[in-house]
Amino acid sequence: MRVPSRLIKSTQDFRRCFIRHAILQGLSGQKTDDLYDKVPLDLVRSLCFEDSLTGLWRYDFGAPAIKLPGGREIIGTLQFQEMRNLVTAMRLGSQVLSAYRFEDYLRRLACRKKHADVLAEFQPLAHRTTLAGIENEVPGNGKKTIDWSIPDDGQPPLLIEVKSRLNFGVHSRLKL
């Protein structure tokens, strides 16, 4: 187990934790089961735990932040994502993406190295009261696309490109 025992207040079955967070976000019955059934298998196998420092429910998935000599790793919130954020991203993805794009999103979500970045893609939509008219991957300059086009009453649409990349290059300059 990668999660240090002192960070674990309690554990819960991944499915039960996911469903509980889906219900907290207003999903019910068959919708919660349908959404859970789309969770990539590698994620379902993750340890789900209540973080003893924050009280947040997290799951252990993601590549180590930094690999150290002797097989040691520096781990943390990049590997221990919040369950509520996974449920939010999957709920929003199932609502605003086409079936094809949602399947692609789920494939990318299952990649440990990119998981945190992929999970962050829905942050701009997380607190919106309506999802009407929102478009994903709209044409930008040349061959580039913009992540989100969000309508704004009487104004040009708000275009948002989401990036959640952290630079861990500092460790290469440290003497270990």
Give your account of this protein's structure.
The protein is of the alpha+beta class and 176 residues long. The chain has one domain. Helices cover 31% and strands 22% of the residues. The chain contains 6 helices and 9 strands. The chain has helices at residues 14-24, 29-36, 41-44, 83-96, 99-109, 115-120, and strands at residues 8-12, 48-51, 57-60, 66-67, 73-74, 80-82, 135-139, 145-152, 155-160. A 4-stranded antiparallel β-sheet has the order 1-2-3-6. Strands 7-8-9 form a 3-stranded antiparallel β-sheet, with no helix packed on it. A two-stranded antiparallel ribbon has the order 4-5. A hairpin with a 5-residue loop joins β4 and β5. The longest helix has 14 residues, at 83-96. The two termini are 24 Å apart.
What is the string of SSEs from the N terminus onward? EHHHEEEEEHHHEEE
Strand content: 15-25%
Shape: globular
For the sheet with most strands, the description reads: 4 strands, antiparallel
Spatial order of strands in the largest sheet:
1-2-3-6
| Tally of separate domains | 1
Percent of residues in helices: 25-40%
Number of distinct helices: 6
Structural class: alpha+beta
**What Rg, in angstroms, do the CA atoms define?**
18 Å
What's the end-to-end separation, in Å?
24 Å
Number of strands: 9
Low-confidence stretches: 166-176
